[in-house]
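[step 3/7] fold_predict: job queued, chain A
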Amino acid sequence: MTSVSVFQPARSRRQVAAPGLHSVPLVRMPDALNSPEPLQFPESLADRIWFDSDRKRLVFQGFMSKATYDRLDALSNDDVYQRALDELFRQSVYEEPVQRQRRLHKVVPIAAVVTLALLVLTLAIPLCFLAMRL
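[step 4/7] structure written:
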């Protein structure tokens, strides 16, 4: 009887051990494309992606470009591996920080002071002319 690996995405986007280190559950490394041998990552990427057999996790360090994703995706047609790789890609893509909206509580006091100053001037000018006539 053979066991079937099932990919389950991590419930949180919590970092594994260091900033920029992403991991997803993966029970076993799949076979390489068109080969019964286990998948081996290209030497140029071996320092950025690896399989942690103790924790049963696929780990990637840093930003994963689309070109890197495509290279890794082409290594195996195993569905479980490809879903794990999709999740790693999603986690490691840089997201632009959301620009915070200006808060009105900082603008309202300034507008109130300007409005009050204009009101005082509007009332003060006629009072000055009235005081001069007397």
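[step 5/7] annotate
The two ends are 110 Å apart (CA to CA).
Residues 103-134 form one domain.
exit 0
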